[in-house]
């Protein structure tokens, strides 16, 4: 469980005074447990909240949640906080079969923990009512909330992915100059969109190689272990000092094999997973881009409609038609809608500008951490290998004497 | 701005080209152990690896400054080891570097090719298609491939430091057969297969190349054998220009026919031709006169395999049986170790390649972030990525270099596995020699029995004549038996000295293999560790 320092407005670390503690909200996701049997089986997680926020019940609360609950929270936030880059969730389905294992569960738990903590430390998102529900509601309330959504919002993960795909094709089309729908003509924003889409490609490739590297470590470990076993048998056959040397070589090989497997795991959890998280984050941004495009389109459409309505209204005024009053009424409504749409759009723009800075900042830190772990792990491994083999040198040298 | 970007573009393109070369190397690797290993060891031309002259089998790589031990948590050393200290760890009283194996002053200590052994190096190259000149029914004639065989030696009998000759595969088969006949009991390295099937299936070029490599290995091994390298057969093969003046081994059938004629002459009392020399008897029956013996020995040889129990021969030499058992087991373990070594080497190669590709993908990311950087955080991230990528590419190079050396060392396992194959022939030479002795012994006893019976009928004139003949047969067979016995003893002696020689050589080679393997692993792991330690230091844990 990590205590993330909240950034922005809500929860600056002020010097401690005896009377007031700085507001904090800290969450941890732990203790995955398999529930149910067969096709219905799923994993449940313990979600522990520690906080002094007034809106929350008490200093500590523990609830049990499953993956779909997290998805619900993500969808709600996405709906309500347009313009903000909602932290990404780990994938629902896995393609690689081998990941249905303790390792997969641990990776998912870690990703879910990161997810909730990022929400809890975001100055706006942490105020969310849905978050409060998620962190505190009993299971029945949670289930009810979950099932309500499927009717009203229809924002299943698959739908979310569809939006991303639509956005991708729309934006790509625009970037490629194929289509000219109603789009912002903001060169800086264009640049940002292009950046996000290309970034995703580069990151996906890097992540692919990172994953392969994990596999290579495992393979090297496995083959070294097998080599060690074979060499031990050879040593038994040779006998005498040479035989002993071989069996020591074999023993070291087997030991290093274990270290390699461990390093593979470390690489997976502390490097490849953060890289994947980065990829997911970029995908989430694409969703926000889609929302912004939607908002812009709505605003433009309404602006169009208002213009047309104005023309209509003037016509009716001249004709002194009895429909004029209704038309006036509609016109006023449209104008109100238009103002709202404009406000929504401008909020998204403002938020996105802030979010981009926050995102870049966070990613530089996250990646710096990941790189450090990578380098540390590689150094540790290389040194362990050097140490192990080095310890054999005196024995091998004494062999020549015979 | 443009110029700067272009330069960066070049940099990363260079890297891309290097790694494209890498992927073309991958497509060359085949499932054939030999070519996979040698393809890897040809790595010295790979742009991402070090220049070929820094082969630590000859000289150590340039030592870096004093090593740091960054991961102090599991650091059990008190002093960091420099490369110089690494070398002085050797208990050699004269303090010489243990791994400057090519260093002549050190040779006598740890290297198998000490200055005492004569130098004989054989290379096979330049395959050429040639046409069968005579007796071609098919227009255009039969084509075959010849190989250029170059020998460099200081052995005086060869009378020259370097010479070449062109030979075809059939010539190699002839050489191999003649050696097998002449050097019974010796561990003669087996020749490359005829592989008729492969020659049809594989691409011609691939097949010729595979064969060239195999021939080189075979001839080189012959050259390394202390007795065979001095043989007339080998010398003639390596030196005499034009047609190979060794008779190809006659087919069994023609020999048999030859033998049958001689036997029938003998039975008809024809003394004119067919004087049988005792030493002729000594060859396995399938090459000589006794048709009956041919049949007998054929029946026996079916059950005389390397690992099986031969009920016909009574092998009483317990030491021999022990050795046989031991060498059988050794062959199995060497085969297994060699296989596992191959898999390990492939894994090392894979991690080198993946690390390189991984580094490259981050170089691309770096370039991308720099091109699109709006914020300082992006530039910082790009700088971090570049650090990581550079270290990854460097360590990829190190892994590659380490691997090409590992290949050379672990190849020893494969080599000795091959040498042990020669043992099969040597032991079956022994078995068949023993069989000959025992067959002759039993023949003798039946002849004696015959003679005894005939003795009692002295009065009968026809029986007296018969007795004379039998006595003559006894005399001949006694001579043959004593020849066969001394041949058997000779082969036994060869076996024994060969086993000793092989054991000695193998132990020596394996010692060097272990040393070389371990030292290289240490050296390169240290280098790789240092690269990463630097990166970890430059990018502290809090990510700032």
Automatic annotation (TrEMBL), chain A:
Which molecular function terms from Gene Ontology are attached? phosphatidylinositol binding
Identify the CDD domains for this entry: BAR_SNX (cd07596), PX_SNX1_2_like (cd06859)
By its UniProt entry, which Gene3D superfamilies does this protein fall under? Arfaptin homology (AH) domain/BAR domain, Phox-like domain
Segments forming domain PX: 23-142
Per UniProt, the ranges with Low complexity bias are 13-23
Domain of life, per the record? Answer: Eukaryota
Alphabetical GO CC annotations of the entry are:
endosome; membrane
Query: Where in this chain does the entry annotate a coiled-coil region?
Result: none
Pfam families per the UniProt record, alphabetical: PX (PF00787), Vps5 (PF09325)
UniProt-annotated stretches for the region Disordered = 1-31
User: Which protein are we looking at?
Assistant: PX domain-containing protein
Automatic annotation (TrEMBL), chain B:
Concerning PROSITE patterns, the annotation shows:
PX
Database matches in InterPro entries:
AH/BAR_dom_sf, PX_dom, PX_dom_sf, SNX2A/B, Vps5_C
Where is composition skewed (Low complexity) in this entry? Answer: 26-35
Segments for region (Disordered)? 1-114
- Which residues fall in a compositionally biased region of kind Polar residues? 89-103
Q: Which residues form the PX domain?
A: 125-245
* Gene3D superfamilies noted in UniProt: Arfaptin homology (AH) domain/BAR domain, Phox-like domain
PANTHER family from the entry?
AH_BAR DOMAIN SUPERFAMILY, PX DOMAIN SUPERFAMILY, SORTING NEXIN (PTHR46757:SF7), SORTING NEXIN-RELATED (PTHR46757)
Q: What is this protein called?
A: PX domain-containing protein
What broad taxonomic lineage does this protein's source fall under? Eukaryota, Viridiplantae, Streptophyta, Embryophyta, Tracheophyta
């Amino acid at each position: 469980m990590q205590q993330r320092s909240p950034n922005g407005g809500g929860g600056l670390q002020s010097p401690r005074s005896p009377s007031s503690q700085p507001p904090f909200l800290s969450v941890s996701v732990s203790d995955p447990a398999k529930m149910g049997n067969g096709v219905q089986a799923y994993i449940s997680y313990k979600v522990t909240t520690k906080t002094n926020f007034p809106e929350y019940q008490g200093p500590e609360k523990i609830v049990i949640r499953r993956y779909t609950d997290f998805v619900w929270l993500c969808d709600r936030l996405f709906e309500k906080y347009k313009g903000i880059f909602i932290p990404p969730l780990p994938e629902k389905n896995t393609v690689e079969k081998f990941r249905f294992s303790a390792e997969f569960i641990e990776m998912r738990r870690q990703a879910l923990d990161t997810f909730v903590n990022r929400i809890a430390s975001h100055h706006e998102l942490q105020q969310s009512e849905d978050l409060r529900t998620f962190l505190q509601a009993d299971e029945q309330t949670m289930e009810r909330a979950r099932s309500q959504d499927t009717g009203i919002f229809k924002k299943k993960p698959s739908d979310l992915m569809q939006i991303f795909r639509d956005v991708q094709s729309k934006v790509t089309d625009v970037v490629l100059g194929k289509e000219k729908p109603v789009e912002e003509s903001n060169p800086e924003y264009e640049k940002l969109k292009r950046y996000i889409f290309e970034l995703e490609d580069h990151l996906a490739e890097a992540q692919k190689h990172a994953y392969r590297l994990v596999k290579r470590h495992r393979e090297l470990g496995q083959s070294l272990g097998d080599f060690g076993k074979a060499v031990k048998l050879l040593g038994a056959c040779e006998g005498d000092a040479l035989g002993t040397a071989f069996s020591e070589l074999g023993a070291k090989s087997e030991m290093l094999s274990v270290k390699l497997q461990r390093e593979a795991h470390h690489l997976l959890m502390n490097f490849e997973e953060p890289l994947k998280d980065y990829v997911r984050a970029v995908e989430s941004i694409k969703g926000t881009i889609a929302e912004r495009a939607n908002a812009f389109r709505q605003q433009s459409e309404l602006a169009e409609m208002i213009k047309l309505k104005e023309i209509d209204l003037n016509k009716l005024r001249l004709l002194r038609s009895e429909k004029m009053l209704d038309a006036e009424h509609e016109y006023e409504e449209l104008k109100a809608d238009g103002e709202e749409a404009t406000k929504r759009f401008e909020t998204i723009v403002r938020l996105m500008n802030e979010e981009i800075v926050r995102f870049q900042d966070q990613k530089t830190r996250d990646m710096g951490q990941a790189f450090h772990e990578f380098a540390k792990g590689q150094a540790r491994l290389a040194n362990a290998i050097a140490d192990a083999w080095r310890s054999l040198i005196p024995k091998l040298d004494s062999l020549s004497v015979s | 701005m443009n110029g700067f970007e272009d330069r960066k573009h070049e940099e990363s393109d260079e890297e891309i080209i290097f790694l494209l070369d890498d992927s073309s190397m991958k497509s060359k690797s085949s499932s054939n152990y030999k070519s996979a290993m040698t393809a890897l060891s040809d790595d010295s031309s790979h742009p991402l690896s070090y220049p070929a002259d820094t082969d630590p089998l000859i000289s150590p790589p340039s030592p870096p400054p004093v090593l740091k031990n960054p991961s102090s948590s599991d650091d059990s050393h008190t002093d960091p080891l420099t490369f110089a200290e690494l070398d002085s760890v050797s208990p050699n009283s004269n303090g010489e570097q243990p791994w400057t194996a090519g260093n002549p002053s050190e040779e006598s200590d740890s290297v198998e090719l000490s200055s005492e052994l004569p130098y004989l190096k054989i290379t096979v190259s330049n395959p050429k298609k040639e046409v069968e000149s005579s007796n071609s029914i098919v227009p255009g004639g039969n084509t075959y491939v010849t190989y250029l065989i170059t020998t460099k030696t200081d052995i005086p009998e060869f009378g020259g430091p370097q010479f070449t000759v062109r030979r075809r595969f059939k010539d190699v088969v002839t050489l191999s057969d003649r050696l097998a006949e002449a050097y019974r009991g010796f561990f003669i390295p087996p020749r490359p297969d005829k592989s008729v099937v492969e020659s049809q299936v594989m691409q011609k070029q691939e097949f010729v190349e595979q064969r060239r490599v195999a021939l080189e290995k075979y001839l080189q091994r012959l050259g390394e054998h202390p007795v065979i390298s001095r043989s007339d057969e080998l010398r003639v093969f390596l030196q005499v220009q034009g047609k190979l003046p060794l008779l190809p081994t006659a087919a069994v059938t023609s020999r048999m026919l030859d033998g049958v004629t001689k036997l029938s002459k003998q039975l008809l009392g024809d003394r004119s031709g067919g004087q049988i020399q005792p030493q002729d008897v000594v060859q396995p029956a399938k090459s000589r006169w006794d048709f009956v013996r041919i049949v007998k020995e054929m029946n026996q040889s079916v059950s005389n395999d390397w690992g099986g129990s031969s009920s016909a021969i009574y092998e009483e030499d317990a030491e021999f049986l022990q050795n046989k058992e031991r060498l059988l087991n050794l062959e199995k373990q060497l085969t297994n170790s060699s296989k596992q070594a191959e898999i390990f080497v492939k894994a090392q190669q894979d991690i080198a390649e993946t690390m390189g590709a991984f580094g490259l993908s981050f170089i691309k990311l770096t370039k991308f972030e720099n091109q699109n950087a709006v914020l300082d955080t992006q530039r910082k991230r790009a700088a971090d990525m570049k650090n990581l990528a550079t270290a990854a590419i460097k360590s990829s190079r190190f892994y590659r270099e380490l691997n090409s050396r590992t290949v050379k060392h672990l190849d020893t396992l494969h080599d000795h596995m091959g040498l042990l194959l020669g043992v099969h022939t040597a032991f079956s030479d022994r078995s068949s020699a023993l069989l000959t002795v025992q067959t002759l012994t039993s023949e003798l006893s039946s002849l004696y029995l015959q003679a005894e019976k005939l003795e009692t009928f002295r009065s009968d004139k026809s029986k007296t004549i018969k007795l004379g003949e039998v006595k003559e047969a006894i005399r001949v067979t006694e001579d043959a038996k004593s020849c066969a016995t001394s041949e058997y003893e000779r082969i036994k002696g060869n076996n024994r000295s060969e086993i000793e020689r092989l054991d000695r050589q193998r132990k020596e080679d394996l010692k060097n293999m272990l040393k070389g393997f371990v030292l290289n692993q240490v050296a390169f792991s240290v280098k790789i560790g240092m690269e990463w330690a630097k990166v970890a230091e430059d990018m502290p844990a809090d990510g700032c």
